[in-house]
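Support reply, case 0932

Customer input (verbatim):
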Amino acid sequence: MVTRKLAAFAAELHYKDLPTPVAAMGKRLLLDGLGCLLAGTAGWPGASAARMVLELGGNPQATMFAGNVRTSVTNAAFANGITLYSVGLNDFLQKASAHPGASVIPTLLAVGEWRNCHGSDLLAAMAAGYEVIDRVARSIMPSHRERGFHPTGTCGTFGATAAAGRLLGFDAEQIACAFGIAGSQAAGLYEYINDGTSTIMFHAGRAAKNGVEAALLTKAGLTGPATILEGDRGFFRATADSIDSATALVGLGERYAFLDTTFRPYFGCTSTIAASGATAQIAKRRGGFRFEEIEGVKVICNPVVVRDNAETNPQTLLAARLSMAYNVALVMARGDVLVRDLEESDLRDEKMRRFMPLVSMTGNDEMPRFGCTVEVTLKSGEVDKEPMPYWRGDSSHSLPWDEVVCKFESLVGDLVSAEYKEKIAHIVENIERFDGRTLAEALSKGLKSTLS
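Our regenerated output:
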């Protein structure tokens, strides 16, 4: 039974079980997620969630980093999930089509601070959460996404539940019960892709809060079906037309999702990152782009990308993140783009807007789902081509610790003092020697309050 076996895995996973490369990757992913979270405190989505939470109130159990105040453990997980995911530079599981850190890391921070969990348990819970998201999602992909569900919200709820249950010391039966409750909460629809509205960010926050709530309700005595994933009326059958539940258990405890998780080095969505990277490579070789010399820019990509990322005149920041034309033009205008959060003024950037009409997409069924080839045609007739089947940060070409630290420092910028940037990185690199409150305290003390 899939639900019970995943629950047993999550309950029984310990830090000592993680192979050294897996534990090291987990630390890199944690620091990357924290960089996104702290960077997101300067943006409006995190501030919006924080204002709602402050209006509701809550026991001061865990830190909500947008505004840098303490609130209830569930509300902290919720607001921090929205804040982290709002930046658009957090990690990604390609086969799951989900962003695991967006729901799992806020859960770890909230429960870990509240219960002062040991650092080794934080990393074990994080590994369990990523594993559950990956295995649940891959069992129902691509049908789940094609039906309109957003795996970061839906499958992320199960991952957050696994992490919360593990930190609360649940046994396998308790986590299976919590999964049963979580299954009735797992939600998130892709409709935002049509108008660039911000429910995409809400999905991550809701998944984190759902996971914590499912665990706490289990602790309080509520019950949920232990066949919630594979049952006749369970999550798999309700949300997908094509199911391979055996995928959820293949290699469980042998191959870890951490190693399949990718970093995102450029602004944009996952479907645009390879094109941004390829465009940046061409720009470096040519010494930049001069508008008057360029005839056109063609992105040869998977047909799914042509369908989902074809917006040529984005009117919101989220629509811009999802737009292939916008992201390619952004790199053409500015070079490598790694930013905390674009501003509304960036939607109207004159130089970038000149480049946008030059960008087109061509679908190719043989192109990897997240890969592409960019062809820049000059008015002279010369064509400069850059294939990018993967990007730097992809699981096959992952970022080493020092590059993750550089990304972290770039993301947080002047939001965090140099002293605390170093301290946070040190705590994460040696997380097994620290605890949840020490980590939360370093994040809180180092962060400038941004909520007026």
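We compared this against your earlier run and they match. Two observations from our side: The chain has 19 helices and eight strands. Residues 98 and 333 are 29 Å apart (CA to CA). Please reopen the case if you see a mismatch on your end.
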